[in-house]
Amino acid sequence: MAATNPIDISSSDSELEIEDDEDKITSSSRPLPEWAVKHGTNSRGHARLSQTIPSPSQTQISNLNPSNINNHVQIKIPRHEPNDNVKASTVVIALDDDPEYFTGNGNIGQPWTVISRIANGFGTDFEKLTSQQALKRTLPPSLQLSGPSSKPYILIDNVSSNLIRDSHGSSNLLAGPSFSNCQGYIGDHYSRGNSDEIMMYGNTSRILPPTLMHGKSVNHTQIAGPDGHAYRAGVSEERFSVNDERMVYQAALEDLNQPKVEATFPDGLLSVPLLRHQKIALDWMLQRETKSVYCMGGILADDQGLGKTISMIALIQMQKYLESKSKSEDPEKHKTVALNLDDDNDNDNYNDNNNDTDELEEVKQKGESDDSKSVPEVSTSARAVSKRRLSAGTLVVCPASILRQWARELEDKVPEESKLSVLIYHGGSRTKDPSEFAKYDVVLTTYSIITNEVPKQPIVDDDEIDEKIGERYGLSSEFSINKKRKRASHVGMKMKKGKKDIDSSTIDPSAGALAKPAWFRVILDEAQTIKNHRTQVARACCSLRAKRRWCLSGTPIQNAIDDLYSYFRFLKYEPYSVYTAFCHGIKGSIAKDYVKGYKKLQAILKVVMLRRTKATLIDGEPIIKLPPKSVLMSKVDFTAEERDFYTQLEADSRSQFKAYAAAGTVNQNYANILLMLLRLRQACDHPLLVKGFDSDSIRKSDSVGQVSVEMAKSLPREMLINLVNCLEASAICLVCKDPPDDPVVTMCCHVFCYQCVSEHLTGDDNTCPARGCKEQLGADIVFSRSTLRICITDGYNGSLVHPQFENSVILQDEYSSSKIKTVIEILKSKCLLKNSSLESQSAIGCSETSLSSEQTYKETDHSGIRVVKRTTVYSNSLADRPTKAIVFSQWTRMLDLVEHSLRNHSINYRRLDGTMSLAARDRNVKDFNNDPESLISCRLL
Ligand SMILES: Nc1ncnc2c1ncn2[C@@H]1O[C@H](COP(=O)(O)OP(=O)(O)OP(=O)(O)O)[C@@H](O)[C@H]1O
Q1: Which residue's CA lies nearest to atom 2 of ligand 1?
Q2: pLDDT digit string (tens) for 735-774?
Q3: How far apart are CA 901 and CA 893, in angstroms?
Q4: Residue 706 phi/psi, 5° resolution?
Q5: How far apart are CA 738 and CA 301, in angstroms?
Q6: Which of 138, 159, 180, 459 has the most CB within a 10 Å radius?
Q7: How many other CB atoms are there within 10 angstroms of residue 701's CB atom?
Q8: Residues annotated as region Disordered (predicted)?
Q9: What lines the ligand 1 site, CB under 6 Å?
């Protein structure tokens, strides 16, 4: 959720530095990076390099050049968001290389994102570019080098919505979607997510339509909707890259003719007024829910921070309001409508084949008789007339990190008189009785719980179809379609078989409570979580029985068009919810003629998707007015000692690499080489990070790492070896079913992504999430590869610290590195000074001005007619509010060191990291937002 006027300061490699290095990548004087670029790509076009370390190869490479040590600080002053809660502006500080920080986290259409990913995916392509070419293609115009700049390290970008997304507010960035994105970024972006993206580019050799060719101007009237203005955010013709399919697709997405009708929203249902674009969204959603014959729902794909949550809450409230109105006006009619609402057409067979009908009926009656008075109106209509199955209200599924945020929004944005009853279905003590759900208007739960409790739809056997689509460029379309036809019949058979499977799996006795009811509405927040339709989470979500279905996502397409299939499947958007139809109707059309294909896709999407960005105009006015955002990057110099340390580390790394090369063991040692690169980056943050820990144990040193090292030390060597073998043999995480990111193995020999299992270490439910395993988990019995290896090799910790530095002061906890010192200086200058002056102002009676106000004004349009326009004006008096700061790093060990300095300078802060329980996170987020005591609260991500 948002805050105002964040100032974002991140230290990282600057793009300028990265680009300057391009020539050097190909130079023989850079053997290590050259290898990293070449060998970092596997046979599928994935960059192994990026799967393993959290930074683009170019970033790593620049670290090896002593003249180009990445020790920069970037300062961004982004815009503020509409947030009635906002009491402060925010400073965001990134402490380590974080290309995401420059690129956003995967929004299509962000030029940096796209092009830097091309560079990752096609290391060789990138190598072929001269540094100037690369620079031109990579940097937004405002950042391109055209002669000496008077402000070489000050970047100002008022366009990038991704950056805004990253910094659009305290709670949003820290506890909300952005926090999860941040987590997802570390994991997804650099391992599986990034790989998929690279795969997409690997298949991409298409030429852009003429209108979108690089260097040619785009006729906006051709790509914009009939209203002539919409959806050009981040799409600048200068920025299009040849061969960039995603850009074409972005343009197509933004060409959707968006609705403009605003819903009339009764007073008293929300405690804040809806913004205009939210009223439009509400009207559109009501239409989708009430007027469409099938697929009652859709994808609300507004940009991050535009208020999708509040729009959905408005929808829930509105529907409840309409229903109670209709009931009071015509009770008979209401009954008929209610009966229809119970008709869950995608699972009609459910109870026909269901031996549990009686049981469900019993449960239903129990639910009704137990507490009929407390049953909310909204779900009553669906439930009361159900003769066949238990019904419940709205189910919201979201990542655990934003579960409380949803609860807070439902609490804060709904006035007492119209309160919705909300159940947070999470934690070990959650109810097992499905009839409980019927008592609530809204049930909030997480994707992990859905995955665990809901039987999965069968996987679509699509590999060969995919291959054919991928091969299409080399084949005549006829050949490829014929081939596909054969496959289609095969898959069709499978799907039919699958339908039976669904029915039988739905009555799976092991299914949890969530699988039982027919939900009135299911909302998937951060719906990109299900983008891979093969994953368990996606298949479980698709099995949920619901009348109305919604996907919320600010980044509806992250990797490829295939992402859409998963949404269509969930939404039951026929015929594209059937994979063969999706492949033939959408992918096949694009393969045949991409211009027509994308137009067709636009039309298909238009039906079910509403997307606006922060630059979207309504009647010529931006839907949201934000103050400018500034990005400032400053360079931090090492002290002499730090520089010596880094130079020595680099020299050691080089000679180690040469030794591998001489022995012909580069390939076998690629992980170690990546580790060396990682350590160079860490050395830029604080030399202590390099000492004594391997990469992943550093990241978890304050939680899983240290306690598990202690435990691992006490285990017999054979057991350790067995655990390492388990870890290395397992290619997928048992929770997300993707290749594990930050893999860890439990004592019961189950392998997970660290992030996936961490919920089971700190949450209420601490049983092993592997199916059928009931082991109790704890941080002490979850091991990383490096922990196990350290213990197997009798304490060797992989430290690359040269003996001459063993006792150096820079390797002490108390030592404040140059980067940390700079952070403290920035905090003091941007926050402390300003806030103390504010304090004195308020002492003499200055009042805080309101954040935003609806203003009506008259202006003359082109035809000379006076029109009345409304706009929301956000106060520019941000200077009047205290500034808060967010400091983030990808290494928790670094956060420890920053904390140390914050304490030394008596700076009040709260910490937030992925290892904390939801309750602890929630508490800290609340403190950060509300604590009047703190001049600054820094949350360390
Ligand atoms: N009409 C409104 N009045 C007051 N505050 C609002 C309004 N609309 C949105 N906000 C606030 O703006 C912030 C961002 O909204 P929200 O988190 O719902 O955006 P979102 O589109 O869901 O973002 P994301 O994609 O990151 O989840 C929240 O703090 C929300 O409370």
Answers
A1: 274
A2: 776 667 678 899 999 988 887 787 777 666 778 888 888 7
A3: 13
A4: -70, -45
A5: 25
A6: 138
A7: 18
A8: 1-58, 338-381
A9: 1-2, 81-84, 172, 176-178, 272, 274-275, 278, 302, 304-310, 409, 554
Which burial class, exposed, middle or buried, applies to 503 when counting CB atoms under 10 A from its CB (0-12, 13-18, 19+)? middle
For residue 418, the tally of other CB atoms under 10 A from its CB is 15
> Residue of the nearest CA to atom 18 in ligand 1?
307
Pocket residue to mutate for ligand 1, from 162, 172, 525, most atoms within 8 A of Cβ: 172
SS (H, E, C) 869-921: EEEEEECCHHHHCCEEEEEECCCHHHHHHHHHHHHHCCCCCEECCCCCCHHHH
**Nearest alpha carbon, ligand 1 atom 15:** 307
Distance of CA 853 from the midpoint of ligand 1 (Å): 16
**∠ CA 33-25-110, rounded to 5°:** 95
What pLDDT score was predicted for residue 854? 42
In the block, tokens 């009430």 appear at: 290
Q: Is the pLDDT of residue 198 over 50?
A: no
Residue located nearest, by CA, to atom 28 of ligand 1: 1
- Residue 453, SS3? helix
The CATH class of the 640-811 domain is: alpha beta
Which of 216-225, 392-401, 716-725 has the highest mean predicted lDDT (pLDDT)? 392-401
Residue of 68, 671, 577 whose CA lies nearest to 294: 577
Tokens linked to 939 = 């949350």
The better pLDDT of the pair 547, 356 is held by 547
Taking the CA of residue 272 as reference, the ligand 1 atom at the shortest distance is 3
For residues 581 and 569, give the distance between their C-alpha atoms in angstroms, rounded to a whole number.
11
Q: Both ends of the chain: CA-CA distance in Å? A: 16
Asked whether 93 and 819 are in contact (CB, 8 A), the reply is no
Residue 138: pLDDT band with limits 50, 70, 90: very low
pLDDT for the residue numbered 149:
30
Enumerate the domain spans of the chain: 276-611, 640-811
- What 3-state DSSP class applies to 560? coil
Name the residue with the closest Cα to ligand 1, atom 5.
83
Topology given in CATH for the domain delimited by 276-611: Rossmann fold (3.40.50)
Could you tell me which residue, 200 or 330, shows the higher pLDDT? 330
939: left (phi over 0), alpha (psi -120 to 50) or beta: beta
Mutate which of 80, 178, 282, 310 to test ligand 1's pocket (most atoms within 8 Å of Cβ)?
310
**Low-confidence winner among 478-482, 521-525, 830-834 (lowest mean pLDDT):** 478-482
pLDDT, one tens digit per residue, over 288-305 is 898 877 688 999 999 988
Of ligand 1's atoms, which has the minimum distance to the CA of residue 409?
31
- CB contact set of 303 (below 8 Å; sequence gap of 6+): 107, 161, 165, 233, 554, 611, 612, 613, 614
Give the residue, by CA position, lying nearest to ligand 1 atom 8. Answer: 307
Cα 168 to ligand 1 centre (Å)? 10
- Comparing 546-550, 604-608, 696-700, 817-821, the range with the smallest average pLDDT is 696-700
Full DSSP string of 832-879: IHHHHHHHHHHHTTPPPPPSEEEEEEEEE-TTS-EEEEEEEEE-SGGG
Query: CA geometry: angle at 277 spanning 276 and 278, to 5°?
Result: 90
- For the record, the structure tokens of 25 come out as 């990548």
**Pocket perturbation via mutation, ligand 1, pick of 1, 275, 875 by most ligand atoms within 8 A of CB:** 1
- Which residue has the least CA distance to atom 24 on ligand 1? 304
Question: Strand (E) positions, 64-120?
Answer: 72-77, 89-94
CA 691 to chain centre: 31
Structure tokens at 283: 């009207």
Closest CA to 362 of 434, 410, 298, 431: 434
Ligand 1 centre and the CA of 470: distance in Å? Answer: 39
